[in-house]
């Protein structure tokens, strides 16, 4: 970990709709001087290409350059890991500790994590977070939900993970999509204990 940065936060973007939530989370964490470890699934790249004007490179070594440039990160502040990069710190409990957020989280990854499948680095990193009792936040986006989805969410919650659905509220009167994205990103930051001013906290003046 770089000396002048706050502890790393792992952000995994999987193939549910709402890649913007995960990308904004990376942006805010970089601005807050956190080291950020990024994993983006193959399906997430398809979603990003569908939902945004972005065309992020798939290869980790090129992705890190693209994200570093885009968010003005310090050298080494962002690290990117590939699907089978088993030497990454997130792949083992003996690696450096990091809170992990899967945002958005597909129902596929949700179920794999609930079952401990560990078939790719995102699933393995979440499995490590659970076994090491580290902070793990999953941000699913699907509707309606099946009994399978709900049972997996309950199992993960019982394991100590936080299931934080991408369901923005409207009581802060969002005017733009960005306001709704920040509503969810603010909730994630609350779970991580990272202070922010993205949206006023309940009971605070706007
Ligand atoms: C444009 C697009 C939107 C999708 N939206 C969702 C979604 O909202 N929720 C979900 O669970 N899966 C969604 N999927 C399906 C997942 O991407 C698919 O199940 C994939 O296997 C998930 O893989 P991953 O978990 O490794 O990223 C979407 C796929 C595409 C291409």
TrEMBL record:
Molecular function GO terms recorded: carboxy-lyase activity; flavin prenyltransferase activity
Residues annotated as domain Flavoprotein: 9-192
Keywords per UniProt: Flavoprotein, FMN, Prenyltransferase, Transferase
Catalytic activity: dimethylallyl phosphate + FMNH2 = prenylated FMNH2 + phosphate
Binding site for dimethylallyl phosphate: 171, 187
Pfam families, per database record: Flavoprotein
Top enzyme class: transferase
Family: Belongs to the UbiX/PAD1 family.
HAMAP family cross-referenced by the UniProt entry: ubiX_pad
Annotated protein name in UniProt: Flavin prenyltransferase UbiX
Protein species of origin: Halomonas caseinilytica
């Amino acid at each position: 970990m770089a000396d002048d940065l706050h502890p790393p936060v792992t952000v995994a973007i999987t193939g549910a709709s709402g890649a913007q939530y995960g990308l904004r989370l990376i942006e805010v964490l970089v601005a807050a001087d956190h080291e950020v470890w990024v994993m983006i699934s193959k399906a997430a790249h398809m979603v990003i290409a569908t939902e945004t004007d972005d065309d992020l490179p798939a290869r980790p070594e090129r992705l890190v350059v693209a994200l570093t440039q885009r968010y003005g990160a310090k050298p080494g502040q962002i690290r990117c890991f590939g699907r089978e990069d088993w030497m990454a710190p997130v792949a083992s409990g003996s690696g450096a500790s990091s809170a992990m957020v899967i945002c958005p989280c597909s129902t596929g990854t949700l179920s794999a994590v609930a079952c401990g499948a560990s078939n790719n680095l995102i699933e393995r990193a979440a499995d490590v977070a659970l076994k090491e009792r580290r902070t793990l936040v999953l941000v699913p986006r699907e509707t309606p939900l099946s009994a399978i989805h709900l049972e997996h969410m309950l199992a993960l919650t019982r394991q100590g993970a936080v299931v934080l659905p991408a369901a923005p509220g409207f009581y802060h009167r969002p005017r733009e999509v960005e306001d709704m994205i920040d509503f969810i990103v603010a909730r994630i930051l609350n779970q991580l204990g990272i202070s922010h001013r993205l949206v006023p906290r309940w009971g605070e003046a706007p």
